[in-house]
Amino acid sequence: MLPVEPVSRPRLAGVHTERVDENPHTRYGEAHARERRGMRVDSSAVHSGWVFGQQLDRLADSGCGHAGVGVAGLRLVLLARGAGAIQKLDDETEEDAMSDKVNGLITCDLVCLGVPSPKGFRSYVDWLEACTGKHVVGYRHRGHTPWGLYEERAVYDDGTFEEATVRTRAWKRVWNKMMLRPSCLACSYHSIIRPGDLSMGDYWGIERAHPGIADDTGVSCLFANTAHGLRFLKGAAHSLNLVASAPSLCANPEQPMLLHPPRASRLHDGFWESLVRDGFGAACKNVGALGARRSLKDAAHLVFHTGGKGVERDRRESVGMDASIDLDRVQEEEFPLVFAAKHRSDEVREKSSSGGMFYALADYMIGQGGVVYGCAFDDGLEARHIRCETLEECERCMGSKYSQSDMGSTIAMVSADLSSGRPVLFTGTPCQVDAVRHACGEMGGGWLLTADLICHGVPSPGLFAAHLRFLERRLGCKVVAYNHRPKNRGWGHCEAVACDDGSVHQGSRMVESWKRLFYGNRMLRPSCYACPYTTSNRSSDVTIADFWGIERTRIAAFSDDLGVSLVLANTPKGLDAAKRCDIDARRSSLEESLPGNPMLSRPTSCTQPREPVWEALCSDGYDGMMKRFRFLPKRVRFAGARFKRFLHRL
């Protein structure tokens, strides 16, 4: 059964698409916290991109920083600093908590990449002044240029300024890789669990998350984390255009500060040695941030990024208004609710790829007199969806299948079962589940429960058939059984095949070659690289997957070598079904599950061209393609990789 624990208040995510009069100016470096040597911040630099996150039980360790900004008409103070510098002191009364008034302290943290040393920025300004012979009186880190790009501008005491040059870009080239404080590289606030009532940051990656909303004036992403923060946001909603979003969409590869701490460059130590010894300019040249080569790269980037033209957009267009949300309708409890789960039977988990959650759901549905649909191998080892009326039949659907299943007449059979009044559990990939839900979800009679997977992507069934023939040629026997992830060597991915001569082959370079091809990401269906279902906003009632990375979470002790399932209860129906399953579960969160399951926030990416692989398959056959692209590695390379994995486990 699911544990009875307090449910953490979820995040309300929104997109801010309108500039307001008082935009905060991003300050990269603590040197900007106060004016130095007559320098001033250029208040004309306007850019957005602020994210509002959530605090569960944790408060920041350090005290408040600078005095906050008073907001007219509200009895509050707004503090906007790095997450590590905020401590929430909420002194509101119980009556205030139940009303729409905003009393006491409101805290707002920024999505912070990290902060460099104040002396580091001072050394950069000194270098600028030495290069130009002028006194720097202003510096804008991010502003719009005629090319529509964010560029830096240095303002000098003679009234001139310098913008979008190699010199003004030098700080941008090095601060986030070379000059962050050591504590920033291990910061615990790089997560969608935030310490403030509100958080804010750029909505990087919005082009993929919300196509059509982005424009060249900037878009902010907002999280309201507490009821206190939500009430404050409601009071400011009249000046904002808000569009519903999701935390997992904000936490994406272009916004990595919500996923993990920054990583220092391998040139970090050499940069600092050169900075101390030779000064800022020499240190930048040593790491390629200055020089003729850098200038050529900048010129090429400008040409290819904008086509040599400025960025033009019709600013009269209404951005995202169709998706506007009414904050008064927002509930303080939102789905999905996230759990780590294990079936109570070790025997069931040994047969499962992860923690046995599929079997638990199937057991519940069969007990209700229902039927279960899932993916199984047929006699020819083709993945097909089958209809199950007994648990023995459901066992065929246990375990992962890393190829596209044939749905056949499944939708028609689901429709017939529902029409006859029987409850139905349908499991499959997110796109399959969404198809069944749209075709059968509104039918009367029985009721439909859907469970999808966190899907990496699917290769062609014909490709897997070619792989089986490849194995049979190499092994000299007919493959009669295939297990992508047996548990005899623990919870992981070590494929095994059984042959008609009674032999079993596991973990060899031949058998492991399908895994290498699959995770090479060059043979998946084209639609998988733009999959709209790679988000925490699922179309199913329940989502199940492996809880990869659980050993790095606060519930690490729950993990063992038989596997743990990640479970997302996406609807009240899904939560009710999970509660009735024979499982042991622990509450978790999206931010704990995202690092090990990135397809909750983005599709699989193909970083290398796909066409040469497919051309080789057609011209050289499956064997030639596997060798040419090293999906079948040489023996020495394969042995080295296995030894490396062994050391990693130790």
UniProtKB/TrEMBL annotation:
InterPro entries: Co_F420_Hydgase/DH_bsu_N (IPR007516), FrhB_FdhB_C (IPR007525), Polyferredoxin-like_ET (IPR052977). The lineage of its organism: Bacteria, Bacillati, Actinomycetota, Coriobacteriia, Eggerthellales. Residues 338-410 form the Coenzyme F420 hydrogenase/dehydrogenase beta subunit N-terminal domain. Pfam families: FrhB_FdhB_C, FrhB_FdhB_N. This is Coenzyme F420 hydrogenase/dehydrogenase beta subunit C-terminal domain-containing protein. Transmembrane segments: none annotated. It comes from Eggerthella sinensis. Residues 86-242, 424-581 form the Coenzyme F420 hydrogenase/dehydrogenase beta subunit C-terminal domain.
